Amino acid sequence: MRALKYLAFASLLGAAVSVQAAPVTYKLDPSHTMVLFSWNHFGYSNPTADFGLGEGTVVFDEQQPAKSSVDVTLPLAQLDTHVPALDKHLKEADFFNAGKYPTVTFKSTTVQPLGGNKFKVTGNLTVHGVTKPVVLDATLNKVGPHPMSKAQSIGFDATASIKRSDFGVGAYVPNVSDDITIRITTEGSVPKAN
Predict the structure, then answer these.
(1) Which end of the chain has fewer CB within 10 Å, C or N?
(2) Which of 15-24, 33-42, 115-124, 170-179 has the lowest mean pLDDT?
(3) Could you tell me if 84 and 77 are in contact, meaning their C-beta atoms sit under 8 angstroms apart?
(4) 140, 117 contact by CB (below 8 A)
(5) Which residues of 65-75 are buried (b: 16+ CB within 10 A; e: fewer)?
(6) Neighbouring C-beta atoms of residue 28, cutoff 10 Å
(7) What is the DSSP string of 13-75?
(8) Distance (Å, rounded) from C-alpha 73 to C-alpha 130?
């Protein structure tokens, strides 16, 4: 009888662990997300712009991180350099052509755990109607209940480098650098059930 009780308890414990080990879907928070890109301007300065976040989802599996994924949409309407004239110019046809291509998207294809809190996230970046593979070097900052909202939450940083001419956005190269540095910081939470 005691053995049966132990088996029942072990079964329940196993079920509880397997539920916790399942992938968790997080909705990224635009108010705690920055997607920054910077470039060199004629060798004099290195301006930075923020894409902002439209929508974003991270599916993270703590037990099997390789099964995780990222999917984000960045609306060019929110692009912000802190210089209104530059914002307007970057949205015009010789750069992003936001009227024809209003969003930038990234959808992961693989997540490779590198040990500790480091990951290599490969995915398809679509800019200006062109889709190319890009690798993000990501750091998981924290995962767990948020101290304020109490919701299960996640936060990470990531970096990448691309050539903008690969995406058909090559105006003024090489005086305005072809190489673009991308830096991302974001956090998200499990949405509350309705």
Answers:
(1) C
(2) 15-24
(3) no
(4) yes
(5) eeebbbebbbe
(6) 22
(7) HHHHHHHHHS-EEEEE-GGG-EEEEE--BTTTB--EEE---SEEEEEE-SS-GGG-EEEEEEE
(8) 15
**Model pTM greater than 0.90?**
no
Contact 162, 182 (CB under 8 A): yes
- Residue 138 CA to residue 122 CA, distance in Å, equals 10
SS3 label, residue 129: coil
Q: How many residues does the chain have?
A: 194
Location of structure tokens 């998200």: 188
Q: What is the pLDDT of residues 119-153, one digit of tens each?
A: 999 999 999 999 999 999 999 999 999 999 999 99
